[in-house]
Amino acid sequence: MKKAIVSIAFGLTASLLVAGSASAQATLASVKQKGYLTCGSNTGLAGFGLPDAQGNWTGLDVEFCRAMSAAIFDDPTKIRFIPLAAKDRFTALQSGEVDVLARNSTVTMSRDTQLGLDFPAINYFDGQGFMVRKKLGVSSAKELNGASICTQQGTTTELNLADYFRANNMKYEVVAFATSDETFKAYDAGRCDAFTTDASGLYAERLRASNPDDHIVLPEIISKEPLAVAVRHGDNQWGDIVRWTHNAMLNAEELGVTKANVDQMKGSDNPEIKRLLGSEGKFGEAVGLTNDWAYRIIKHVGNYGESFERNVGEGSKLKIKRGLNAQWTKGGLQYGIPIR
Amino acid sequence: MNTAVDMSRFVRSENIEALPPPNLARGPVAWVRENLFSGPVNTLLTLAVIYLLYILIPPIVDFLFVNAVWTGTDRAACRAETAGHPVGACWAFVIEKINFFTYGSYPAAERWRVNIFFALLALGVGWLLWLKAPRRDLGAIYFFWLFPVLSYILLTGGNVSLGLGFWIKFAVASAVFLAVLAAAAYALKTSMRSAVLIGGGIVAVIGITLALVNVDWGLRPVPSAFWGGILVTLLVATVGIVFSLPFGILLALGRRSKLPILRLASVIFIEFVRGVPLITVLIMANTMLPLFLPADMTVDRLARPLIGVAFFASAYMAEVVRGGLQAMPKGQYEGAMSLGLNYPQMMVFIILPQALRIVIPGIVNTFIGLFKDTSLVSVVGIFDLVKTIEASRIDPNWAAPTISYTGYAFAALFYFIFCFGMSRYSLGVERRLATGQKR
């Protein structure tokens, strides 16, 4: 009996999910009709999604949404940000509460195939890293044999840590805490030799140390955390818009088109730039936008490199190196798919 | 025989100055002896408390005031190496972020509307709470009707554009409602005139409210997604408090009613709501509800937790009020009935005034609990005061070791001021109302 009830409940939920994704067939049309884009954002993550002192949202993920808004409305402000906790984020997207989820979500196979979601664009390649004190004299994670390591309880971070040390046949002592705050406080107070979390988080935490310059982030990345922008499965046009928003920003960087010079570049003879900025071909119309969609993105937000530097790179307090997020021509993984 | 004794008479013409009591029976020394060191146990306790205060107070004062940083524009100001001394609270951070803490993402050009809302709220609360204020009946109308309508228009911008179709439906529904009331009055052989008057009044109030909200006041619309900070905290608390008292009283009366359906409905509601944690209600409302509603139908993201909090507080309030009702001696009910009072008159004039007075501490306790529970809405991604602080403390521009403590100290101060105020006010009211009833 109980089983029957459970299966009925599951069936109902599943049918609701299917109904939800079916009825949301034309997200672009509904966004245009509403006149604004709803964007699921982090409730607060330095560099990715954070309100400033005036309550305006800033960050790499936030600028992705602004780029989409610029492409659709020629105005980067026609957005409502819905801050979502980690546990609510996918439900909010499934139920249609948000049109797009740009909230540092790691894409995995199960998330892609079982949740009714698509992850068309990876806008940040993250991974777990280590921070140590400079005076420890360690320059690689491989030298951490026997170290005590501060980490947060019950996270994948802790599991990755165990995997990494076992694979490299090293001993370590884990010092675990319930919240990320406590974990870092303990490390800062000298309770352990190293501190581990996602690399982007390491840079943000380092700023809070009593003496930031005493600490270095080790080069090794021990896990793969591709942070992607998510949309509902089944609305391919909407997914295309997300994918090509990202690719337009990447291509613009590669071609040297920036927020400042985009108007000059419009007169460029380079056919790739012409296609990107819409003076040649009808690429925008094919996804339901105008042909100058990429021009709008770059004009209002800038290219990927600019957005990166402004929010998490050298232009920000975080000073994260491009690393994996550099252009493919510079040894990174960000590879703009050609527009043609 | 002459018994007179010739002696000069002495009658003191003025009172002699009384001698002061012995030094050990008055003054600070005696007070200390009597209150702090009146026995070995008390002496020990006093010393222990003094020691505790000695180790607790100086660090707190050092942190909050002595080592605090008051000015600065970014994290450098609040770091020990630039400040040149150990840094305590970084008030510069709170000062820089105070607008975000107060208004959230409310558009900067429209924040005067929030300020007016705060002023209207203060006016309403002051009018109702100051016992000697003039025309408190008007104050009640203001607080429970005019103020919510004005706030709604101010904060959202009004102009809901109901459309002609809606007004036609509204007119039809009102006519049906009046007809039903009139028919009921006829069937029950009560005064037709008063039934129509009451019904007409209800329809008029609803109609005027809708009309006011419908008018385009020329205010820029500000959707609730932009609200935040103290605005949201006060809004959730006010809605909870304003709804919980009347609904709680109705539920308590319903639970003690002799009508079985009414009683059952009240019991089910109260027990169901009390049986689930508030956090579950909030997560259900904000995460699960959209899954069950059709895709094109949405309930405002802020309204959902507001309704949840109002329900929750009503159920708790109902149990508090029921406690008061049960404390009333049976003779009060019987006395009222023997005077020929009907049920509403008995409740309004005899029972409730006494019952509510008994449970003032319980009511205020519920209000204080509710006020602090509003911080739970931060869990479902509503930017109340706590959430705005949490989002600000991770701002890399302000990354410094004491930022988190400063933010939470500010939140603690805010909640303390309001909760302590409520508690002191209730003590005052209790003392005033209890004159002649001291037990």
Automatic annotation (TrEMBL), chain A:
Signal sequence bounds: 1-24
Q: Does the keyword Transport apply?
A: yes
Q: Which domain of life is it from?
A: Bacteria
List the Pfam families. Answer: SBP_bac_3
What GO biological process term is on the record, naming one?
amino acid transport
The entry's keywords: Signal, Transport
* Membership in a protein family: Belongs to the bacterial solute-binding protein 3 family.
Q: How is this protein named in the record?
A: Amino acid ABC transporter substrate-binding protein
- This protein's species is Microvirga alba
UniProtKB/TrEMBL annotation, chain B:
Q: Does the keyword Ribosomal protein apply?
A: no
Q: Which UniProt keywords apply?
A: Cell membrane, Membrane, Transmembrane, Transmembrane helix, Transport
**Gene Ontology, cellular component aspect:** ATP-binding cassette (ABC) transporter complex
Q: How does it sit in the membrane?
A: Multi-pass membrane protein
Q: Where are the transmembrane segments?
A: 36-57, 112-131, 138-155, 167-188, 195-213, 225-252, 264-285, 305-325, 346-371, 405-423
Q: GO molecular function of the protein, one example?
A: transmembrane transporter activity
**Gene3D superfamilies for the chain:** MetI-like (1.10.3720.10)
Question: Where is this chain's protein located in or outside the cell?
Answer: Cell inner membrane; Cell membrane
Q: Which SUPFAM superfamilies match?
A: MetI-like
What family does the database annotate? Belongs to the binding-protein-dependent transport system permease family. HisMQ subfamily.
Concerning NCBIfam families, the annotation shows: HEQRo_perm_3TM
Could you identify this protein by its name?
Amino acid ABC transporter permease
Which organism is this protein's natural source?
Microvirga alba
